[in-house]
């Protein structure tokens, strides 16, 4: 699947296998699995060659999916088929709150799962598109994503303690500054000043809530923003470096290669092709 500049949601329609990552254990998936992958995480969908589940009838041309789904709408023994989409969730006026999720998520949706009706409705919209199907699919995908987040919060998943900590005004206001304007010259001192705290007290509270320091998060947000600009614009790399807060192109290139594994130029070529 390469490295996408947007967070991705995969729903496995048929077959079984695993999703593998560069630097983390693989995730087992099968028919009914719903998998969230954060932006810029290179991953592959690998089929085990078993589980010839029937693939729902679909009309890809009517949803502009013909190029992506060519050849996948027939039933083949051992084939794994996934419905994949970019996904975003906003919170309190911030559109990119989903970029704070650092780990992939997987939910195995059984026939009795409370998300099952939503996913069945999603498949009906893909299989039989009509007036308003795009808006309906977008709403259903967002509903699935919110349900996954709720599930993690209710189970007190340790990797999601930061989301409960958003109730802390100091942490939230600093996060919002970084999410809204990742290219600004933020420092731990400037973020602490913005929420009227001392540097040490702010750094300690932020790390306790989010699990990493503010500068580490800021670097990740800048790289994701840079990835979008490389994909969607023809701006020179030097200009993009400036827009995401780097004083030099060389420093930006080193940081981007460390995050994405490709130079900005090579990443742009791969994304635009």
From TrEMBL:
What is the organism field in this record? Amylibacter marinus
UniProt keyword terms in alphabetical order? DNA-binding, Transcription, Transcription regulation
Domain of life the protein comes from: Bacteria
Q: Which Gene3D superfamilies match?
A: Homeodomain-like (1.10.10.60)
- Please indicate if the UniProt record lists DNA-binding as a keyword: yes
Record domain HTH araC/xylS-type: where: 172-270
Record keyword Acyltransferase present: no
Q: Which InterPro entries match?
A: AraC_lig, AraC_XylS_family_regulators, Homeodomain-like_sf, HTH_AraC
Taxon lineage:
Bacteria, Pseudomonadati, Pseudomonadota, Alphaproteobacteria, Rhodobacterales
What is the name of this protein? HTH araC/xylS-type domain-containing protein
Task: State the Pfam families in the record.
Answer: Cupin_6, HTH_18
Q: Which SUPFAM superfamilies match?
A: Homeodomain-like
């Amino acid at each position: 699947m390469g490295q996408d500049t947007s967070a991705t949601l995969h729903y496995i329609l048929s077959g079984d296998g695993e999703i593998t990552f560069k630097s983390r254990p693989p995730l087992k998936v099968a028919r009914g699995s719903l998998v969230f992958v954060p932006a810029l995480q290179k991953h592959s969908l690998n089929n085990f060659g078993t589980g010839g589940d029937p693939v729902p009838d679909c009309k890809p041309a009517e949803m502009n999916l013909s190029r992506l789904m060519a050849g996948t709408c027939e039933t083949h023994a051992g084939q794994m088929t996934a419905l994949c989409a970019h996904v975003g969730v906003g919170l309190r006026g911030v559109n990119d709150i989903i970029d704070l999720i650092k780990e992939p998520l997987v939910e195995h949706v059984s026939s009795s799962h409370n998300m099952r009706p939503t996913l069945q409705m999603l498949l009906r919209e893909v299989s039989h598109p009509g007036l308003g199907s795009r808006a309906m699919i977008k709403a259903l995908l967002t509903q699935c994503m919110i349900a996954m987040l709720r599930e993690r919060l209710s189970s007190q998943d340790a990797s999601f303690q930061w989301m409960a900590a958003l109730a802390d005004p100091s942490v939230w206001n600093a996060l919002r500054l970084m999410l809204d304007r990742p290219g600004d010259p933020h420092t731990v001192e400037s973020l602490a000043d913005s929420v009227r705290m001392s540097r040490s007290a702010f750094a300690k509270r932020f790390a306790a809530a989010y699990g990493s320091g503010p500068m580490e998060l800021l670097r990740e947000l800048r790289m994701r923003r840079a990835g979008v600009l490389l994909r969607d614009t023809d701006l020179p790399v030097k200009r993009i470096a400036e827009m995401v807060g780097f004083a030099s192109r060389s420093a930006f290139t080193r940081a981007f290669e460390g995050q994405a594994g490709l130079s900005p130029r090579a990443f742009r070529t791969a994304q635009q092709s």
